[in-house]
């Protein structure tokens, strides 16, 4: 059984950040669950251009107001607490935090190692996972 508290992850190597975001990486590849789970903050006003070419991702919003845009179609979908969006086709997307910080519970498959960094196109390298 794995039991972790967010307070134990903050300010450790499992707490990654970049311009406009923080990822608190709770379950990772070395936990051997087959997926990874993250508590992610996207700072108000941030606009993240992302495309996970090597991973599928599901995101469940628990705080804040934002939107996700499908770059291929231009469709924009509002995000608020209680909204889930899943990138089931490795969708190139833009995530915007509009009012307050967005707080998302995110799951990645395959699992991330926790030491990845975003490539220039917003993806993670498959070899790092």
Automatic annotation (TrEMBL):
InterPro entries attached to this UniProt entry: Ectoine_synth, RmlC-like_jellyroll, RmlC_Cupin_sf
Assigned EC number: 4.2.1.108
GO terms of biological process kind: ectoine biosynthetic process
Reaction(s) the record says it catalyses: (2S)-4-acetamido-2-aminobutanoate = L-ectoine + H2O
Domain of life from the UniProt record: Bacteria
Pathway: Amine and polyamine biosynthesis; ectoine biosynthesis; L-ectoine from L-aspartate 4-semialdehyde: step 3/3
Keyword Lyase among record annotations: yes
Keywords associated with the record: Lyase
Entries under SUPFAM superfamilies matching the protein: RmlC-like cupins
One example GO MF annotation: ectoine synthase activity
Record's function text: Catalyzes the circularization of gamma-N-acetyl-alpha,gamma-diaminobutyric acid (ADABA) to ectoine (1,4,5,6-tetrahydro-2-methyl-4-pyrimidine carboxylic acid), which is an excellent osmoprotectant.
NCBIfam families named among the record's database cross-references: PRK13290.1
PANTHER family given in the database record: L-ECTOINE SYNTHASE, PTHR39289
Entry similarity comment: Belongs to the ectoine synthase family.
Protein name (record): L-ectoine synthase
Organism this protein belongs to: Sulfitobacter brevis
Taxonomic placement: Bacteria, Pseudomonadati, Pseudomonadota, Alphaproteobacteria, Rhodobacterales
Chain's gene name: ectC
């Amino acid at each position: 059984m794995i039991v972790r508290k967010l307070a134990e992850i903050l300010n450790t190597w499992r707490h990654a950040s970049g311009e406009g975001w923080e990822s608190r990486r709770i379950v990772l590849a070395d936990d051997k669950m087959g997926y990874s789970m993250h508590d992610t903050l996207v700072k108000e006003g941030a606009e993240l251009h992302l495309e996970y070419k090597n991973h599928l991702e599901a995101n469940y919003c628990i705080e804040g107001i934002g939107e996700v845009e499908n770059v291929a179609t231009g469709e924009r979908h509002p995000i608020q607490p209680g909204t889930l969006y899943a990138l089931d086709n490795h969708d190139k997307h833009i995530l915007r935090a509009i009012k307050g910080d967005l707080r998302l519970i995110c799951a990645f498959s395959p699992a991330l190692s926790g030491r990845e960094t975003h490539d220039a196109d917003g993806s993670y390298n498959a070899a790092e996972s």
